[in-house]
Every structure is written in C-alpha cells, then in structure tokens.
Design brief:
mainly beta
C-alpha cells in the first residue's frame, strides 16, 4: 500500500446552504475529507477542493467516521418524524461529481437500527401514547432522542476486533434519572456489505 499523505494543519470544507457542519471524516490513504452538513455530504481533497457531494437526504445526516478496514464512510442518519434511525454507509470511491442524488445513485446504503427505534419510541409511562420528539415527557427509554456520535474503535467487551460505536443523543429532563447515562451501542460491520 502507498503511504498516507502528510496531513495539512487545516482543511476548509466550505460553506454550504444545507446547514451547519455536523461531522467530519478523513481517508488518510486516499487523501480525502468528508463533511456532513445536515442533508448534504461533501467530499474534498486535503486542500479543501470539492470533488463530489451527495444530496437528497430528507433526514438529518450527522456525525461521520471513516472505516479503514473497508474504505467506506459511516454516518448517523435520523428521520425522527418517521421514528427511524440508520447508519448511512457511503462508498467514497463512487463519489466523483457534485450533487449526486442519494436516492438514485449507488453511492449510499443504510442499515436500520431497530434498538434505537425501540428506545426512542418507548412508552415509558404506559399511557398508550408516544409523546413524540420532546424531552418534556417520561417517554423515550434512557431519554433517547436518537443517535448522535459515531466512531470506529475497540470492542468495549474485549472480544477482539474493532467495532462501530453509536452514541445516543439524550433529552435533557431533570425530572428523571434514567437519562443520566451515556448509551453506546456497538456493531460489527463486516457483514453489512450485503
């Protein structure tokens, strides 16, 4: 393999009308940066020159990380109104031009996170009504407001190998104590290529 290029002290990902910066990821070997801006993914070189972008997200594209094992970019993707949460997986090698549509090109796939949905939609007070996207409720197990952070790292259970760690966003609600913890879910993504 070729050596990784030396890294600049900063990379300007540009200003985009799609919202503020949500996450970044770097492909050191390929010499690329990835930036998420709420409903837009931008790929640049290490000087900040745009190479390509992925548009068409109607949900909230958040934090990013690059998986050196498979060369793909992983991002949090929330559709709170639809009560759905995903990991978006981008094939960076296929992002070759600006404004590639996420729905009609083959640059992105998703994995549905059922456990997050169950915790987000949990009717914790047993009244038979899910109160929706609000922290001012006893609903949402652990105060789960969806997913926030995403990163590759070691297996927290020490089973060996790396894992994708997904962190919950947590609603602030001082009237409850079950939201005083950080919830981290880990996934072995090696079989997610299917």
């Amino acid at each position: 393999p070729s050596p990784s290029p030396s890294l600049p002290s900063s990379v300007d990902g540009g200003a985009w009308s799609s919202g503020h910066l949500q996450g970044t990821a770097i492909d050191r070997r390929g010499g690329h940066m990835y930036f998420s801006f709420t409903d837009l993914l931008v790929k640049t070189d290490l000087s900040g020159r745009p190479i390509g972008s992925v548009t068409g997200f109607t949900g909230h594209l958040g934090d990013l990380d690059f998986n050196t094992a498979d060369g793909r970019v992983y991002g949090s993707l929330e559709y709170k109104a639809a009560e759905a949460f995903y990991v978006a997986i981008f094939d960076g090698a296929r992002i070759t031009r600006m404004n590639m549509d996420a729905r009609t090109t083959d640059v992105v796939s998703t994995v549905h996170l059922r456990e997050v949905v169950r915790d987000y939609t949990a009717d914790m007070d047993g009244d038979g009504v899910f109160d929706g996207n609000t922290g001012d409720t006893p609903d949402h197990r652990y105060g789960c407001s969806g997913i926030d952070g995403i990163a590759f790292g070691p297996d927290l259970n020490r089973r060996g190998g790396g894992r994708l760690t997904v962190a919950y966003g947590v609603y602030s609600n001082t009237a409850r104590a079950d939201n005083d913890h950080q919830v981290l879910l880990q996934y072995d993504v090696r079989d997610w290529r299917r």
